[in-house]
Amino acid sequence: MIVKRGYQAELDLNNAQSTLARKHCGAARWAYNYGLRRKQEAYKAGEKTPYAPDLHREINTLKQTEIPWMYEVSKCAAQEALRDLDSAFKHFFRKVALKKQGKWKGKCGYPKFKSKKKAIGGARFTGSIHVYPDAIQLPRLGLLRLKEHNYLPMNVKIGSATISEKAGRWYVSICVHEEQAEPTQATGEVIGVDLGIKTLATCSDGRTFDNPKALRKKLNKLKRTSRRHSRKQKGSQNRKKAKTRLARMHARIANVRKDALHKATSAIVARTKPASERPAVIVLEDLHVSGMLKNHRLSRAIADVGMYEFRRQIEYKARAAGVQVKFVSRWYPSSKTCSECGWIHEDLTLAERVFICQQCGVVLDRDENAAFNLAASGSLIEVPRVTRELTPVDIM
Length: 396
Ligand SMILES: [Zn+2]
Hints:
alpha+beta; seven-stranded antiparallel β-sheet; five-stranded mixed β-sheet; 14 strands; binds zinc ion
């Protein structure tokens, strides 16, 4: 089967290249804002809404007079930004329609003007894109060196490439259409995975994945750095410097977190292992993360764990490995139910890290108990148990 996949790699740009890359991002932003303004004007005047091709034609005319700098960049920058604008409106109208039917409670997301102050942003390219072991060739930007060699796939159909900047580093992401062999159905045991705050993930087969220790340390440092940033005078050069430092730290934390998530999800899905060692079913709790984020005490911890991201990774990795993913309703009391006898501990608090059953007397790690319940609810197959020895720290 043909699957769409994304790859991202860091670029190693020289000064001329990063200047040109910035110009492309600037052109994309300009085109997006121009299109948004034009759409709004047309709406107010009761005229027909201009779409991406119409707007691109207008920009091409403007190039000859008002915006000659647009000649310096690839036509893709404006073209793709205008397409993004069209799809932003499409999503907005879709949500408005859903809201009318009462199926959507959040914001509808009316497209906003993009600001240079917020982020440099990015620019997407289509057309002639070539990947080499240590470089990528893009329209107008030419050959750009890659920091990681032999990572981006070669000899595949490339749909598009996007350059973007984050905390002083440049990246390229490509969307490829890959031929992927149909996976054989996995036949291993059913695994329940409980996502938590103390530990990142606890599996019913006894494995646990911890949150990286580096994260906690970095978070303390982050607090200090953001305090320093907020104390600097607004508009000052020092504030700018502090902002860059803060952005770099945020990016670093995000990377550490992403790495931990990828390692855990890859280990759980075990794609490279034979079918009998891959889980037939992975059972996850269908968490209502947005509801949980409103709890301020937990928000930091939950945001850290990145539960949405965990679930997203498990889903796409499982698809490629012939592993089924099932979700258990978020109302199912996986933490409160005894995985041995089914007794429900009604007033179990979040602080209680150990589950002690008052009916059958079993003592289990809280997350492990939840993982057993999840695995059991995923199928009628008996889940083999590997119980981790509880340490005194757990009991405390
Ligand atoms: Zn019990």
